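Lecture 7 notes. Example A: sequence first, then its structure tokens.
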Amino acid sequence: MQKIPTTIITGFLGAGKTTLVRHVLENANGKRIALIINEFGDVGVDGELLKGCGDESCQENGVDDIVELANGCICCTVADEFIPVMEKILARENLPDHIIIETSGLALPQPLVKAFNWPEIKTKVTIDGVVSVVDALALSEGRFASNEKAVNEQRAEDEMLDHTTALGELFEDQLICADLIIINKIDLVEAGRIDEVAQTIKQEARNGTGIIKSANGIVDVNALLGMGLASESDLSGRESHHELHHEGGEHEHDDFTSFSLSMPASENKIELISLIEEIIKQHDILRLKGFAAIKGSDARLVIQAVGSRVNSWFDRAFNEGESRKTSLVVIGQKGLDEKAIKERLLGLGS
């Protein structure tokens, strides 16, 4: 039996992984694709966004399965969650032509790559390629980069960068494991700065790693699917910081925490977004995402925030019988004041 190719898409918080996956699904050219999504937090935001790309469109483009692993990072739950999910997909009568795995923004890809050598799946699937998506704007501002001068300049203006050591290592680990790196959001960066970003990435990536540039996750799907690299058989040079410094140890996400909350519909969009922006600045929130209900609107509001940048848009109408409430996931560093953040959000309009 020919092995089913699998593409692993990794990347830091808010780099644009879900946007990229949506683009791939909408341009799959008839391929049957099984999609595995690994959430951080228990509100299925990314899964809902992908389903919201239009069920009919997804079906037309051959999306066979969307499987969400919402309880923990995929790199920490390989045996408990990932392997059984893969076995379930491989037991289907109509096998997919391709599998796509979108990892959590906090995930190390290395343990997942190694999992493809597990006996249960080794003879049936292969890693077509590991793709890392990076945020060109963030890097151009000195975030998660190896340029010490840029980091120090940014730290003087933004307390978030007091915590960049752990985040920087995680970012580097995602780059070193990649076969292809997509520099996303180039439309938000001056042309000259994009070349600087690309040079920074080249310094962190393995020799021979492909680098392409994109805006809004729009890339040639043929460049993404069909690399045929069998990455699980090429592990040398992909080691993470944790593997190099703690050989044989277990990876943990002690530096990060997340929580979710639900709240009634808000009076208006502007008030809600303004409050979220204020809370993000006060509490150094790394990532906030979810869906909101706005009184007087029949459409669901998507909220996606990375650092101080907050984007929102209405993606679809509420379904009949669907609860019209706001559900958010908040991700930050350990010590995040969950109680204070919840009190501010739940107090909106009270």
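Example B, a different protein, same format:
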Amino acid sequence: MKPLVRRDSVSLSPPSSLDKTADKERLFSSLNYKNLEIPLPLIKSLPQVLRENDYSLTLAICKTESSYRIVSFLPERITGIALDIGTTNIIGRLLDLESGVMVSQCGIVNPQREFGPDLLTRMHFAMLNGVEELNLCLIASINELIQILCSESECQRGDIAAMTISCNTVMTHLLMGFPVDFLPVEPYVPVTHNPGFQNPVDLGIEINPNGVIYLFPNAGTYVGGDIISGILATGIHTMKVPAVLIDVGTNAEMVIGTEEWIIAGSGAAGPALEEGIADIGEKATEGSVCEVKIESESFEVILKTIGHTGPTGFCASGMVSLIAEMFRSGIIDKNGRLDTNKTGVLAGENEKYFEFFTEAGKRLIVREREVLNFLRSKAGMFTAFYVLSGAVGVKFHEIERFYISGALGNGIKMEDARTLGMLPDLPDERFRFITNTSLLGAELLLKDKTKLQEIELIIGIITYKEMNEDNDFMREFPSAMFIPHTNPEVLRGGV
């Protein structure tokens, strides 16, 4: 392991009438580091620490972009936090940086949701009212999460020497307290692409005040640090043949690349696979339906839930499974229209719906318009990927590996995705499902400081393709609205 923060030991010769070297210079001359920094509070405590320990010290030393920093003297424990700040949720992992072992993990809801469920709404609020409220509530929630992680692991805040943070470009701005006025308007210019290492005190984040916080860089408004972190986690930037990352969060962001080039794009999909599609949609929690089976003859609906409790709603994998089973059972046709001749399909006053669960006062239905919303999102995701691969002349069969993350990275079955035409019709072994590549990349950097050079490499070779007004996207989108597609050969043969 080559962690971002490591323990080092040093024994110094004490000063004498023949050696009157100052304490700081004495320490630095005995350490084999170029561009070594020491925060002012540690300089103030250095004389006493040296003399109380007979000039023998252990230190926690952190690698930064162009230097090293002494974080603490005589550390009892060296830990770090990998943090993924999503539009909806914030997830953190506390790691022992000497063993590499994760000692606790916690997820909380992003409190900025009270200002709006999506990034555009929050940016609009910040443009009218300033970023302070959004910034302060985010910092407070991060500190709350840190406290939870510490309490679960008997760790002290002072033991946390480093934090690596992965998030999209808007979240980075709101975390840093940067204005977002120019992000949503042409030509979509962020305040900075590379915020890099920051002091915890400057951000108000309550870890060791002498520690460091690293924010993953962005490559533009729509290619944030979460995507850079995901590329790092999957190793796409090291591949000799094309590989793909599809990360379904608030949007479906996708990356195609090799060690020589990387192209990224996005399409709306994330919310409509969960709480954005239907009243029954929700984030994955205990009670969320994650898998559905509809008996072909009786039309009995069998629901599998997280935690094996009564159903509370449907997470992304459950929603995908439900729509796929409805199609296989003939409850919906290739256009997503409900068949009122099927058991459970009812015609309401204004629309048709499928009622599939009633028990103990709980009633679960999915409406025809909600199915159509799902298909729009499915079409947006697949079409964006189809156009992106076509832009670089890559055929589906030429792609060695597909990494699926986010809402689709947790429990989705390839059979269901293939039925609906969400992903290319390729052998299962080409697909790898990873719950959170953004968090994984942040964790990898904590464990290995050499990943800093890899991040610079990624930034140097990545480009972004705008999909919103792309003519190819507009032309291909209607065909993907069908199940699985108006031309299934597109799913098998690629571009």
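Note on Example B: The radius of gyration is 26 Å. Residues 126 and 133 are 8 Å apart (CA to CA).
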